[in-house]
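User: Quick sanity check before I run a bigger batch. Here is a single chain. Can you write out its predicted 3D structure?
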Amino acid sequence: MGTSPFWAYWYYHLPNFVLAALMYTLLGRALLGLIVQPQDSNYIWRAFCRLTDPVAAAVALVTPKAAVPVVVWLFGVVWLFWLRVLLLYAFVAAGLAPKLS
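Assistant: Done. Predicted structure follows.
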């Protein structure tokens, strides 16, 4: 019985999945933030906020204070994208990246 490609390279796929989930959730928060008020009590909005607040806080440290929150969230999407690229590059450089079959 062969191993699945996911489990063979779990050490790459798990961090990549977490970064991708955060990136797309942050993008969803930015899009949803255009139509929802910041103090809304909607449980979906609160879930988006709770999941992405740590990333938004980290990005806010390097973003000018004059930037509106939606810009900070979009910068977060860009930072997470480049973190995923850097992760792939690091695994390729170390020879640990998943192989194309």
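Helices lie at 5-8, 10-33, 43-62, 69-94.

User: Great, the batch can go ahead then.
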